[in-house]
Amino acid sequence: MKKHKDYDCNLGCMVENTLEIIRGKWKGIVLTLLFDKCYRFNELQRQMPGVTQRILTKQLRELEQAGLVVREVLSLKPFAVCYSLTDLGRTLKPVMHCLKQWSLDHGHEVYALETVQD
Amino acid sequence: MKKHKDYDCNLGCMVENTLEIIRGKWKGIVLTLLFDKCYRFNELQRQMPGVTQRILTKQLRELEQAGLVVREVLSLKPFAVCYSLTDLGRTLKPVMHCLKQWSLDHGHEVYALETVQD
DNA sequence: CTGTATCCCGGAGGATACTG
DNA sequence: CAGTATCCTCCGGGATACAG
């Protein structure tokens, strides 16, 4: 695991700390999904078109390391696991709401400037 | 400029949209700094130990493209520019506050689990 | 079903030198 | 002072195949 910050910053660092946790490409979606209910591995994958097993596993492991997500083995015979949020993970709800709200309010203004026609 | 999203997602996508804008390594700090006042290029660099000119320029250009930051040439004789936030950029203040607050409230809990002694 | 093991690639970030 | 121009490194993300 890598160090969180390689230098001390008393300015935007707080913001960066939080950002690093949710920086992974699929972590935002994973967390958003898990706010509602716990998910099986393949349920998650189906909700996230484009992600591969390896990457999804990786994102989940990292969220687990951060203490935001819990992996629970339900059964071994038919191998089944269940991913859910920890209490700490749940505290991110207002944060994610904040991000979502901004996108709803101002996202289109950004798009207007990015205008990509590929 | 790259496409914002390569697929349509109606779940965590909103969150992702906002995250992509501030994903750059130094963007959080830049924005945080610019909330207070406008900065000269080298003022910014001095506030951000570790960043190189090239990278800082890149981050600023991207924020500019997104419509969050304005670059204003103050004078040519002694070459001077000034970076400040647009109205759109300023709307990110509550979002950044949200991220910062979470770090203050729960950041240490994450650290506790990451425990890296390198 | 839920992974791990390889191999691979592009791009973000960085070091350094040069410029108007 | 505020940048470009090169070149380079590293790592997140992905494709694919295999495994318990």
Q: What does it look like?
A:
The structure is a homodimer of 118-residue chains. Chain A is mostly helical. Chain A contains six helices and two strands; from the N terminus they run ααααββαα. Chain A has one domain: Arc Repressor Mutant, subunit A. Chains A and B meet through helix 1, helix 2 and helix 6 of A and helix 1, helix 2 and helix 6 of B. The structure holds a DNA duplex (20 and 20 nucleotides).
How would you summarize this macromolecular structure in one to three sentences?
Chains A, B: This is Transcriptional regulator, HxlR family. Two copies of one chain form a homodimer. By secondary structure, chain A is mainly alpha-helical.
Largest sheet data of chain A = 2 strands, antiparallel
Strand order of the largest sheet of chain A: 1-2
Kindly report the CATH topology of chain A: Arc Repressor Mutant, subunit A
Number of domains of chain A: 1
Low-pLDDT segments, ≥5 res of chain A: 1-8
Give the radius of gyration of chain A.
17 Å
CATH class descriptor name of chain A: Mainly Alpha
Let me know the CATH homologous superfamily of chain A.
Winged helix-like DNA-binding domain superfamily/Winged helix DNA-binding domain
Number of E strands of chain A? 2
Average pLDDT of chain A? 87
How large is the count of helical segments of chain A? 6
Can you name the CATH architecture of chain A?
Orthogonal Bundle
Shape of chain A: globular
Order of helices and strands of chain A: HHHHEEHH
